[in-house]
Write a structure and sequence with these properties.
The protein has one domain (4-133). It is mainly alpha-helical. The longest helix is centred in the first third of the chain and has 18 residues, at 41-58. The protein starts with 11 loop residues before the first helix and ends in a 25-residue tail after the last helix. The chain has helices at 12-19, 24-34, 41-58, 63-77, 82-96, 100-107, 112-125. Helix 3 runs parallel beside helix 5, helix 4 (63-77) crosses helix 5 and helix 4 packs across helix 7. The protein contains 7 helices and no strands.
């Protein structure tokens, strides 16, 4: 796998294929659909990685694959380029937060920075976020840390 310093926003799609080779066929099909102009990283992560990741999180016994994907995401979350960080926060973490069960399972695999992005996204959208420091298992955070009735 390519060193994180060699990854850039322009080649992160190829970096994803190196990290998760199971996505290669879907990636090539997506590129073919786009024709002369290749899809951008948010499209690749949103249309290819996210469905794969949600499927993995919804199935049993996929620990090795999940660790592999989340290690790659953590590398991006810690990248010096904010655009790489946004792929994790905006495209991946926002999608994972759409399903509380999926998000709860994803938390087990997230690195520190990815988890930080996930928690920030959940607070931003006013969705409850399962906090690692909440021993009761309750989700105390909604906008500003207080429950908000709508």
């Amino acid at each position: 796998m390519r060193d994180v310093s060699q990854l850039s926003y322009d080649n992160v799609g190829e970096g994803l294929m190196e990290a998760v080779p199971e996505l290669r066929a879907a990636y090539e099909a997506e590129c073919h659909q786009w024709g002369d102009e290749p899809p951008g990283p948010h499209v690749i992560f949103g249309d290819i990685l996210n469905p794969y990741l949600v499927d993995l999180l919804g199935s049993d016994r996929q620990d090795a694959k999940l660790r592999q994907v989340f290690q790659f995401l953590e590398r991006l979350a810690n990248h010096e380029d904010v655009h790489m960080q946004e792929l994790v926060a905006v495209t991946v973490c926002e999608r994972l937060g759409d399903d509380p069960k999926i998000l709860h399972r994803a938390h087990k695999y997230m690195g520190v920075r990815t988890r930080q992005f996930s928690d920030e996204v959940e607070v931003f959208w006013g969705r409850t976020a399962q906090r690692a420091d909440d021993a009761s298992g309750q989700s105390p955070h909604r906008k500003g840390g207080k429950r908000h009735e709508q």
